[in-house]
Amino acid sequence: MAYAEQYIDKLRKSGLRPTKQRIKICKVLFNTDKTFHFTIKELVKIIENQANIKVSLATVYNTVHAFIKKGYLKEIPLNASQSYYDTNVTHHHHFFDEEENRLIDIHQDDVDEVNIKKTIPGKKIKSVEVIAKIVSDNQSQK
Amino acid sequence: MAYAEQYIDKLRKSGLRPTKQRIKICKVLFNTDKTFHFTIKELVKIIENQANIKVSLATVYNTVHAFIKKGYLKEIPLNASQSYYDTNVTHHHHFFDEEENRLIDIHQDDVDEVNIKKTIPGKKIKSVEVIAKIVSDNQSQK
DNA sequence: TAATACATTATATTTATTCTAAACTGTTGA
DNA sequence: TCAACAGTTTAGAATAAATATAATGTATTA
After folding, report:
1. What ipTM was reported for this prediction?
2. Using one digit for the tens of pLDDT, what is the confidence trace for A24-49?
3. Which of A61, A78, A99, A124 to mutate to test binding with chain B, by most B CBs within 10 Å of its CB?
4. Ranges under pLDDT 50 in chain B
5. Residues 6+ apart with CB under 8 A from A130
6. In CATH terms, is domain A4-76 a member of 1.10.3720.10?
7. A81 contacts chain B (CB < 8 A)
8. How far is the CA of B125 from the C1' of C30 (A)?
9. Where are the domains of chain A?
């Protein structure tokens, strides 16, 4: 219960009332130091496995989107059939393994600062993400 | 008709028979020096406006995917409800304007080479893409 | 604690994409 | 050249993620 206040705080700051369902979602997303990637489907599955309360898809979508808006979650830019989300909101990048449909973090320190010389009038950069697609290295092409 | 052979060549190299419909798709995609971004919906609309032949959605999807596989088109990694494709297959990057749902090319020279120090055993990097999200700069936050 | 505003849910809807199967067409080889 | 075959096109159905709806439930407030 000690953690519940953190969650309530996060929810209120996101403009959401702390309800049983939302606190459960928070527990799954934020009760560990480890960050992770997930799809909505996976998140629902984790909740189902852990909880004795039911959470509908709509609530999960709404809550995840509110957290993204507030910056507690990030959406990972990836052209996939489902959206991928990340509990790691620090500045970092990703490998995407298309063969195994797997996302792997790349720490900010492992990529030199991405410096973009081009600017768009009236616009500022909000975020910069690097996606490196990886495939099996069969040594065939040297 | 001088161009048709180019298109037939592209199609054959993609493992596709040159049919009326596919040649039409090639004309829309490759008959200009200018590169552009498109969604399937937009591509269908352009074809409709130009052609007196009909091309079904399924054919457009199949052909676009064959071209991507062959490297004549690129998919732009973007978590959007529709997939975005690019006729510019050279190495370059993108701004994505979330407010206007607009993609803008960033020439390779405008971004320093992205050097990733991390490696994944048994895997090699196939491609590296930078997505910079931009928003209105209201000068409000200095 | 009553009134209100916000939440939750099951279900329906929307929309991009993929699948299907029947009709059609390019290709090949005799 | 033409028959046979393999690949293609198409309309429409199927799938699946995401969003909308509207009735019921719950947190908040005064």
Report:
1. 0.89
2. 999 999 998 899 999 999 999 999 99
3. A124
4. 1, 141-142
5. A93, A94, A106, A111, A114, B114, B116, B128, B129, B130
6. no
7. no
8. 50
9. 4-76, 89-134
